[in-house]
Every structure is written in C-alpha cells, then in structure tokens.
Amino acid sequence: MTTILIFCAASAEGPDRSSLELLAGALQLKEKLGGTITAALFGAEVEPHAATLVQHGAEQVVVVSHPRLKTLDAQVILEVLEQIVRQVSPSVILFPSDLLGGEIGPRLAYRLKAGIVTDCLGFEVKTDAGAPTIRWLRPTHGSKAMAYMTAQGALQIATIRSRAFELPQPDLARQGQVRAWMVDLDTVPSPVTLIENIQQAEEGISLDQAQVVVSGGRGMGGPEGFVVLEKLAKALGAAVAGSRPAADSGWVPHSRLVGQTGKIVAPRVYIAVGISGAPQHMAGAGSSKTIVAINKDGDAPIFKAAHIGVVGEWQQVIGAFTETCQKLMG
C-alpha cells in the first residue's frame, strides 16, 4: 500500500502553514495513488496539535515531542526522521521548501540513496506500463520557465514551495491514529550548539496571513515612498512588502522581502509599485490571485504578469488611489 509521509514542524502554538499546505498536496496525491497519509510531527509540547493534522487530512500522526526540539535542531530531526522512514517505508515523502525542509530533505535523500526534486509547485501522475509515475513541476532557468522532473527510484522525495497548494478545509469529525515515537533524544548527537535565539518582532499584518499585499521596489526612490505605501496599506488592511533592491537599501525590513530568496506570498491582491518584475521577484509573488502593477515604464516585465496595469509615476497614482480606497473602505 502506498504511504505518503509528510514532514511537519510545529511550535507550542501549532503547526505552521506549510505543514497544512503539504497535507493539501498529499490529499491530491492520494486521489491519484491511493494509500494512506502519515504525518511526522516534530517540536516541543506539540502533542495537542496532532489532532489538527488529522482534521486536515492525516490518517496517522507520529509525534516526536521533546524540549530539545524547541529550536528544531536539523541534525536531531534528521536522525529520528530516518528511523521513522525506515519503519514506515513510505513511497512519497514531502517537505516544505523552507530552510528546515531544504536542509533535511536532501540529507535524508542521500542517506536513503533516493532522488529528490526541490522547490516544487505541483505534480502530475502518469501511468506507464501500469505503474504510476509522479512528475514534479518546478521552476527552472531562474523561474523563467517551468519543467516537469522525475526522481529515479521507487521512493519519491520532494520539497514543496509555500503557497503551492491551498489550505485544506478541516474536518472536525475526521478520526486518525496518533502515536508517540519512543526515542531518547538526549542521546542523539548534534554538532550544533545553540548560543542565543534571536526573534525579531514583526510589526503590522503578517505577510503569511495577508489577503492584500502592497509592495514597493527600486522605483520608490527611497524610504519616504514606503511611508506613502503604509497609508495605502492601512486603508486596505494590507501588509507592506518590498523587492530585493528595496530591502537591501533598508527601505523595508528583510523580513518583508518578497522574492526567490525571501517570502513567497499568494494573496488575493498583490499591488506592485515601482517594481520591474524580475523573475527572482515574481518567483515570490507570481502565485497571487490578482496582480496590480504601477510603473512608469510601460515595457517593464511586471506588466506581462499583471492582471491590472497602470503606467505612470507612482507619486501621481498612489495618492489618489489611497484617497479613493479610504472613501470606499470607510
């Protein structure tokens, strides 16, 4: 029987969004392949959150909860996850395409002598000679093109980009099996010693939760442009973000950077102001439901991806736009 294994990291507050998105992808895979979905849940004091994973599609949850996992030590997780995989014998393993999944996934694939396809946006299942084959969809050539790729071997491992799948609807009546993984984590070695954990408080609406994002680029000209964008964002109940040049210039915090090396967002509306639309930026914003581009250069690449485009100086557009939004939003 096919088993789809999902790697889930959680804090005391609950599983992160990427874990639930992986379950959405696993449910789609299950429709094609059949079998069962098992989630491996790692963290400190995360036992209560196993029920959340069941409600979102997991049929079995293996819980690895220990104070040592409060910082989600990749080496410790790798050692335990390898044990779980060798016992569960899954056909597919899914990781989030974030720092943690991007480190553990390839290392686990090496240990298991399996192939891995990273940074995937989707998949399709082809049946050749009666045997199903998963073809993983991922960006290539600097996100200028998309390609289907396959991993050699029976075991398929993939990392899935954030926002590749919509969050599954929870079913509070769904039942599943939950069991604790018995292992003495104190004996698992790690070459990393945590000296200090620094967490930066994020002001305003989180990019991960925002339904509307107002983002500025090099064309804003300086930090004063983002003061104007803040007013627009406040009128719309939106989050403020920026491109790589804006973040590197200090106009917007790097925690608000949208792009291939920053956050990947998929809001209902993404308003790009003074952003040229380079592939590296669109890798982070291209999944937005509606893209509104405001740029003085009518030939800017952003207009190829935009659903609504405004050619003009942002100083002449944003003021009137903000005033209208304030009136409409009350």
Spell out the blueprint of helices and strands.
Elements: E1 3-11, E2 14-15, H1 17-33, E3 36-43, H2 50-55, E4 60-65, H3 74-88, E5 92-96, H4 99-112, E6 116-120, E7 122-128, E8 131-140, E9 145-149, E10 156-160, E11 177-180, E12 212-216, H5 223-236, E13 239-242, H6 244-248, E14 269-273, H7 279-285, E15 290-295, H8 302-305, E16 308-311, H9 314-329
Parallel strand pairs: 1-3, 1-5, 3-4, 4-11, 5-10, 6-10, 12-13, 12-14, 14-15, 15-16
Antiparallel strand pairs: 1-2, 7-8, 8-9
Helix pairs in contact: 3-4, 5-9
Q: Summarize the biggest pleated sheet.
A: 8 strands, mixed
- Structural class by sheet pairing and helices: alpha/beta
Assigned CATH class of the largest domain = Alpha Beta
Per CATH, which architecture of the largest domain?
Answer: 3-Layer(aba) Sandwich
Tell me the radius of gyration.
22 Å
CATH topology of the largest domain: Rossmann fold
Please name the defining characteristics of this protein.
330 residues; alpha/beta; Rossmann fold; 2 domains; five-stranded parallel β-sheet
Overall description:
With about 325 residues, the chain is of the alpha/beta class. It has two domains: about 5-185, Rossmann fold (3-Layer(aba) Sandwich), CATH 3.40.50; about 210-330, 3-Layer(aba) Sandwich (Rossmann fold), CATH 3.40.50. About 30% of the residues lie in helices and about 25% in strands. It has nine helices and 16 strands. A hairpin with a 2-residue loop joins strand 7 (about 120-130) and strand 8. Helix 5 packs parallel to helix 9 (about 315-330).
